[in-house]
Amino acid sequence: xxxxxxxxxxxxxxxxxxxxxFPSLIGDxxxxxxxxxxNIYHNAYRMRLRETxxxxxxxxxxxLGDEFYDILVAKYIENYPSKVKSLRYFCDAIPALxxxxxxxxxxPILSPLAAFExxxxxxxxxxxxxxxxxxxxxxxPGEQWPDITLTFHxxxxxxxxxxxxxxxxxxxxxxxxxxxxxxxxxxxxxMIWRTPERLTxxxxxxxxxxxxxxxxxxxxxxxxxxELLADYFSVDEVPAHAVQFLQTWxxxxxxxxxx
Amino acid sequence: MINDHFLGFGLGxxxxxxxxxxxxxxxxxxxxxxxxxxxxxxxxxxxxxxxVAERFPxxxxxxxxxxxxxxxxxxxxxxxxxxxxxxVKPRWISDHLCxxxxxxxxxxxxxxLPYTEDAINHVAQRIMQAQDHxxxxxxxxxxxSYLTYKESGMTEWEFYNEVCQxxxxxxxxxxxxxxxxxxxxQFDANDYINAIDGKRVRQIHLAGHTDYGDYVIDTHDHDxxxxxxxxxxxxxxxxxxxxxxxxRDDDIPPFTNLVDELNIAKRIAHEELPDLSQWKKEQAHx
Lengths: 259, 286
Description:
The complex is a heterodimer of chains A (259) and B (286). Chain A is an alpha+beta fold. Chain A folds into 2 domains: 1-89, no CATH class; 108-259. Chain A contains 10 helices and 5 strands. A 3-stranded antiparallel beta sheet of chain A has the order 2-3-4. In chain A, strand 3 and strand 4 form a beta hairpin. The longest helix of chain A is centred in the first third of the chain and has 23 residues, at 34-56. Chain B starts with 8 loop residues before the first strand and ends with a helix. In chain B, 48% of the residues are buried. Chain B is α/β, with parallel strands linked by helices. In chain B, the strands form 3 sheets. An 8-stranded parallel β-barrel of chain B has the order 1-2-3-4-7-8-9-12, surrounded by 4 helices. A two-stranded antiparallel ribbon of chain B has the order 5-6.
């Protein structure tokens, strides 16, 4: 290994608080001590990562309170050093840490709360795409309906929760006390998307809408989607419900293309 | 004589100022974006950037190329950079004379290199590779530093000049970084400016810092201080008209405050360069 490579490895190990000979490579420059000089870098490293967590997870921070939040920050920086060029993705593993590491793992609300906060961020800067308007649906020839498939706007995702994470997020966002964590008997589904005005929105969707959305997201066609809805509605009501879902999605600006 | 690359006086494009940049009257000539902030698919930042780029010259300033690292250049990053260049069509792109990652870990900091012949060879080679990959000449910026390696055998400006000469890249000279490093390492900042190879200087950064008495940290959260304005005046005398901008990354003031601060740079440049008064008139006739 070259001297330059060794120096760089020692420097980064030092920043991470790992054993390192890096201090021995630094020249003495009074009146400022070598320790002070080294600490400028050490502190900057930790501060920058902490600020990123602060910016990405204000609601999680509120829920945890200062003491637990400090533990989270320290554990995350230690266990998940940044492997990414952009700090935008640095916190991607926070939900995993909260699910796997004590003292957080014993609180099952934490990981989904963080995952929801990240899902909102993902929708915020997802890829752009043109969207269709109602006219394209209205002018679709009747014989083409059974075979149509949909391309959704890249920002749309479905967030599945088994505990009341989104309600907790909403309470904290509006400065209210969070509800007691409560597991659901069946999962709840939240659609998250970015509007044409570039605002991030979300709403709770019932199982038929979630089933139909997943069907189209996987490339399924309208006719097969209607068959899936027959599990929820009487057969003669199915087409009307299916069309209504499509209209709702077009109005929300989440359909990029009818195929 | 004002050269074709002179863009005038610019600011770093920051999120709180998007609306002001687009919807208010101002005399900012151009904007610099932080490259990595726009390496996302879409959404608000890309939406505003598109509009800004339609109306103003834009340059791209990166923090993650890590031209000084000893691990292979990140081709995925370079491909993303190439794509963004194609989308934004900046007048030029820049990054820093430093390394940011090792052991597979990104420090998200601009870590200084030792000033050695080996480091010159290594970093010059990497800059050439990066330039080949993206198909254009880059600007390389001097960074602030807080420590000196025992093995460094030359001054920072000797190192910087030599790297840029061997890599045949251009220079983004950060006057505040020179001031910060001069205070931290007790050299004369004017010696630095006087030694720089002026024909390579394409852009100048100005910024504020935090002064702790015995040392100074490059925080970009204060106004530009008087000694940095004095250095800027010397830089203008030596280099002539160079595209100049103010970087502000923390405690970001209202847009109009930064425009006022930028007008100080403008005034200094006009005082030192009488030809500059013709520049806007020439631009108006283009």
